[in-house]
Design brief:
Shape: globular
CATH architecture of the domain at 269-283 and 290-454: 3-Layer(aba) Sandwich
Catalytic activity: Couples ATP hydrolysis with the unwinding of duplex DNA by translocating in the 3'-5' direction; ATP + H2O = ADP + phosphate + H(+)
Mean pLDDT: 84
Number of helices: 26
Radius of gyration: 31 Å
InterPro entries: ATP-dep_DNA_helicase_RecG, DEAD/DEAH_box_helicase_dom, Helicase_ATP-bd, Helicase_C-like, NA-bd_OB-fold, P-loop_NTPase, RecG/Mfd, RecG_dom3_C
Low-confidence stretches: 1-16, 417-422, 643-649, 694-698
Largest sheet: 7 strands, mixed
EC number: 5.6.2.4
Family: Belongs to the helicase family. RecG subfamily.
Domain Helicase ATP-binding: 285-454
CATH superfamily of the domain at 269-283 and 290-454: P-loop containing nucleotide triphosphate hydrolases
């Protein structure tokens, strides 16, 4: 609220200040505003111009734009037609204005006592009884009360936190703050950045003659200072976390002996050039005496699993255990089937551990892990339960790592502190992702990781043709599915929901299964979804892998990990409801054999703009990196990374598309400060991250 005198409304029950302040503190804390610096960096999302008052008659000609008027209340009534509402009439020398409140408290009528002077701001529209405002912002004022001389900030707020209380709390925090700049004057001068205090004060209270478009699109020099500071803090934190990990130490896994050689010799194919390059990078990291922290990314079907298995053989050759954790049981089981088939003929004991195992099976697996007899352990998040103790854990592999929270990844890494591995060391960590990370994200959110990219597909893979078809042509698609199955090919039919949702009205997996079973009586149509018991899912998947089932109706449980080379046709129901990354992952389940593969995207018209963009992208390219770049444009980094649940500190102010040059500058300055000025590093991180920095250490 602007700094103007306001006559408070009378209340029959005065508030208890201490309790009210405590409640406000709790509500602010829920917004993440716990310190003065948190409040000061809670910057406005927009502004209102309350620096001038116009006559009511003039406001009537400002249709579509908010206006501020001032007048005296001449009537105040609670009306009941067509619904209960508070109707207040005020007027100035130019005429009357009606204010209408559909939601109101009984006590509000006291503020609108006839004769009170009201200052109201809102959009004027022409009602049956003349000009009116619906739910305007208003306050009771005295005649001649001064107008604010700055724009009024509007902040992101939560339940129970009013703009008035936020503005007051931020103003009080600004009065208490130590405004010392964290960046040296020479850096500010060379980068032509505004001083911190000047930038923050301007953003909270901009003068009315400021370039409002520069504020709105965040190109104003004050915003550039905030963005640079934020990006610099992120770069410093991640680089410092990387240094801290390297200082921690890990057991060097230096042996590549019998197992590694036998594994490579037994493969029925030769590694691609990209796989060999990435493997060399990983092997060099594993030989180091500090923990590897490497992200292995590659498009669907590029062969990440075999590289991960080869990394595991290096750990086992060196006398240590390796663990692979996957986010879903289907994906974990696919890894187990494939890797165990490679490893067990070489004499490696591979343990399997998931939450769905019976108690006795779990205990047996845990005993194998604890004794060290199980050299390789594959499973879901069940691996991080307290009951699981490793004997000598040297390498942790996390697949689809963005699906795990920070706490889960940290818990598995800390398993390496058990047994004979010293507390000062942690296992090496290899994270895998089939969602390629665009360069801008790699430079920011993954600045602490080494990144390896498998950028070529194995030979013999056929390109996937993608067709976008209106669901009114379902019968044609079903006929095409039938023809493909009679030719000996297998088909996925993917649906977004298990049960009917009236809100979304989507075709469900169970209904589709019934429809296809009836339409294709000569084919075996299977069904798999997330609510089935693990044994049921396993039986259905095995039938599909053996080709006893020709058509598999599934929810997105088959998004990752399923590898059936004979499946060459995929139909995705209600494709407009899926994100780009998910569509690309699903499409990657076909095109794994030599047969020409097709992905059909069935959509419900009419299509919105974002859905049209997504489906157009899928039709135009199969390049995972191009798809990831466009996905980032559409969704932004927070959703792209799943960062809301992962604990990563999201960028609040910087935009990775428009502020690329700032990212580069922040990265360069971070490297220089870490070499030359650790005092500035500490001060800047304390200001911008505080305790949040801990989340970036995994």
């Amino acid at each position: 609220m602007p700094a103007t005198k306001q006559v408070p409304a009378k209340s029959s029950k005065p508030a208890k200040p201490a309790k009210a302040a405590s409640r406000l503190e709790d509500r602010l804390a829920r917004l993440g505003l716990k310190s003065d610096m948190d409040l000061v960096l809670h910057l406005p999302m927009r502004y209102e111009d309350e620096t001038e008052v116009v006559e009511i008659r003039q406001a009537g000609f400002m249709s579509g734009s908010p206006a501020q008027v001032e007048g005296v209340v001449t009537a105040c009534d609670v009306q009941y037609r067509p619904r209960r509402q508070l109707v207040v009439t005020m007027e100035d020398a130019s005429g009357p204005l009606m204010m209408r409140f559909l939601n109101f408290y009984g006590s509000q009528t006291k503020q609108f006592t006839v004769g009170n002077r009201i200052r109201a701001r809102g959009e004027v529209r022409h009602g049956f009884f003349g000009p009116e405002m619906v739910h305007p912002n208003y306050k009771v004022v005295t005649e001649g009360a001064p107008l604010p001389d700055v724009l009024t900030p509007v902040y992101p707020a939560g339940e129970g936190v009013s703009q008035t209380s936020l503005r007051r709390a931020i103003a009080e925090a600004m009065a208490r703050l130590d405004w010392q700049d964290t960046l040296p004057p020479a850096m500010l001068e060379s980068l032509q950045l505004m001083p911190f205090e000047q930038a923050v004060r301007l953003l909270h209270n901009p003068p009315p003659d400021i370039d409002e478009s520069a504020l709105e699109d965040r190109s104003h020099p004050a915003w550039l200072r905030m963005k640079f500071d934020e990006l610099l803090a992120q770069q410093l934190s991640l680089k410092r976390a990387q240094d801290a990990r390297r200082a921690k130490g890990a057991v060097p896994l230096t042996v590549m002996g019998r197992l590694s050689d036998a594994f490579l010799a037994g493969l029925p194919f030769k590694l691609t050039g990209a796989q060999q390059r990435v493997l060399d990078e990983i092997r060099a990291d594993l030989r180091a005496s500090y923990p590897m922290q490497r992200l292995l990314q590659g498009d669907v079907g590029s062969g990440k699993t075999v590289v991960a298995a080869l990394a595991a053989t290096q750990a086992m050759d060196s006398g240590y255990q390796a663990a692979l954790m996957a986010p879903t049981e289907i994906l974990a089981e696919q890894h187990f089937r494939k890797i165990a088939a490679w490893m067990e003929p070489l004499g490696v004991k591979v343990a399997w551990l998931t939450g769905s195992l019976k108690k006795k099976e779990k205990q047996e697996a845990q005993a194998l892990i604890e004794s060290g007899e199980a050299q390789l352990v594959i499973g879901t998040h069940a691996l991080i339960q307290d009951a699981v103790q490793f004997s000598r854990l040297g390498l942790v592999i996390v697949d689809e790592q963005h699906r795990f929270g920070v706490g889960q990844r940290l818990a598995l890494r800390n398993k390496g502190k058990d047994g004979s591995v010293d507390d000062a060391t942690v296992p090496h960590q290899l994270m895998m992702s089939a969602t390629p990370i665009p360069r801008t994200l790699a430079m920011t959110y993954y600045a602490d990781l080494e990144v390896s990219v498998i950028d070529e597909l194995p030979p013999g893979r056929t390109p996937i043709v993608t067709r976008v078809i209106d669901q009114n042509r379902r019968d044609e698609v079903i006929a095409r599915v039938h023809a493909a199955a009679l030719e000996g090919r297998q088909v996925y039919w993917v649906c977004p929901l298990i049960e009917e949702s009236e809100a979304l009205q989507l075709q469900t997996a169970t209904d589709t299964h019934a429809t296809l079973t009836e339409a294709l009586p000569d084919l075996n149509v299977g069904l798999v979804h997330g609510r089935m018991k693990p044994a049921e899912k396993q039986a259905v998947m095995e039938s599909f892998i053996r080709a006893d089932t020709q058509v598999l109706v599934a929810t997105t449980v088959i998004e990752v990990g399923v590898d059936v080379p004979n499946a060459s046709l995929m139909v995705i129901e209600h494709a407009e409801r899926f994100g780009l990354s998910q569509l690309h992952q699903l499409r990657g389940r076909v095109g794994r054999g030599s047969a020409a593969s097709v992905c059909v995207l069935l959509y419900q018209s009419p299509l919105g703009q974002v859905a049209r963009q997504r489906l157009g992208t899928m039709r135009e390219t199969t390049d995972g990196f191009e798809i990831a770049r466009r996905d980032l444009e559409i969704r932004g980094p927070g959703e792209f990374l799943g960062a809301r649940q992962s604990g990563q500190a999201l960028l609040r102010f910087a935009d990775l598309e428009t502020d690329q040059w700032l990212v580069e500058e922040a990265r360069n300055q971070a490297q220089r400060l870490l070499r030359e000025d650790l005092a500035t590093v500490a001060a800047h991180l304390a200001r911008w991250l505080g305790s949040k920095e801990d989340y970036l250490r995994v």
